[in-house]
Amino acid sequence: MAAPKKRRAPAGGQGRPGRSLALILIAMVALTGGMFLADQPTPRLGIDLAGGTSITLEAKSEPGQESAINKTNMDTAVQIMERRVNGLGVSEAEVQTQGKSNIIVNIPKGTNSAQAREQVGTTAKLYFRPVLTVAQGTPTPEPSASSSGKPTPSGSPSAPTADKGKTSATPNASATTQGRAVTGALKADATPNPKASTTPKADATPKADATPSADEAAAAKLQKQFAALDCSSKASRAEAARGAKPTDTVVACSSEGDAKYVLGPAQVSGTDVDSAKAAIDQTNGQWIVQMEFTKGGAKKFQKITGQLAQQQSPQNQFAIALDGEVVSAPSVRTALSANAEISGSFTQQSAEDLANVLSYGALPLSFKEQSVTTVTAALGGEQLQAGLIAGAIGLALVVIYLVAYYRGLAFIALLSLLASGILTYTLMSLLGPAIGFALNLPAVCGAIVAIGITADSFIVYFERVRDEIREGRTLRPAVERAWPRARRTILVSDFVSFLAAAVLFVVTVGKVQGFAFTLGLTTLLDVVVVFLFTKPVMTLMARTKFFAGGHPWSGLDPKRLGAKPPLRRSRRVNAPTDPKEA
Questions:
Q1: Are 157 and 95 in contact (CB under 8 A)?
Q2: In angstroms, rounded to a whole number, what is the distance separating the alpha carbons of residues 441 and 391?
């Protein structure tokens, strides 16, 4: 006895369309619930729709370096500013050049514009410099020349007492700055006393091809500048940092303004930092910034810390100077290499800000904030209203066409458009806090264009079904036989649309990327909706009497479609009625 043949499952999942519908309905409910749980019931809006802040920055060159303001450096600055602002989670921020020396930064409403303003304009030039002298941040009496001809700070506090390589600590916590440098589990703590001052060694000043009198004059000028420096003034701190070169011996203030330093030439720069991140010190619970050096930077850092470890306080300290201000000045007791920590009076925000600017690099130019203006959303609101009206008109025309030409099939198309709209809206709302997506006018245009792409997929499938009915098949087999052919066409069409959106996103910048992103997102959703919603709904509708019976308003009436006689009837041969004919 022959074994019974196994029944082949219906093509396209004809028997179980409910599974696909249940899956997409669960996804819509989950996305909608997540949208409300994230307290993000509406998509985030870009600056053209929500308003925001527009910052104009003017590039400033150092004396004798006017040629530094060029297209290459300006483009590099724009890229670094974009990375910094994006690192803060500010979405749809626009950074672009204007003219030869200006950069415009547009920041949408609803973000921390003050924090972004500080980030984009910070040069973030980081140097590790050896400390030669440290004193309180207020001006001291004019220095007098010693008998040896070398200037020493007159009237300054006495030198600190060296105790096992540490600088002395004062009871006055407000007058101290703290810092540490670590490698692995090795730590070197320091609390330098800004009230203490020592005279730098004679060989601490870098030698140059000049006469001794020129050296003495330069040293005297430096000591005079150091004595007169008032770090309590922000303007004085900025003036002290201006024009300093990495190879110079310079004066600098602490970022708190409570201490001032004489610093030797830079030994390690910010370009030697591979990565930086904010973290909490497990020993005291304070915020710190952890840095990892590049291979070359680690060698430099090991060399300078090895030299400093042999010095007495405060010349065993190295200053971590950011944009000319000393963020931290730890002392060193042993050579360090791969990693370092910057500690001090950091908050979580200030530690993350410093790690952000260190991670994305220093600007090649200095910038001055020229203007800050508030951008209103009035113009963008009018354009959005016009765009939505245009979209509504387009959608209405699509509906009229579907009803007039496809009749009852228009109901399936409208349900599919509704499902696509729900998925698109919820995803746009959730992508705001997730990846910083913000809806701008070009993105709205991309969503409107997607209506046509989605409707085109429905039309392809409907026409394939109609073709099968014209061939004489009934509706249920026609739905399943039409699906493989329609599926290939839909996938190829959507692939081309997605590829165009991906290329547009990669090669463009600014708002055009919003159009490309939305177009790509809605194209992917079109595939999901057609496979998991339109096809299963069509399968279920084919089982109803209204569609299966070919009602004139179903859009599948065989007579209106010009269907051929059924294929099975065309193959039948009538049996003879007369026995003689048999």
A1: no
A2: 12
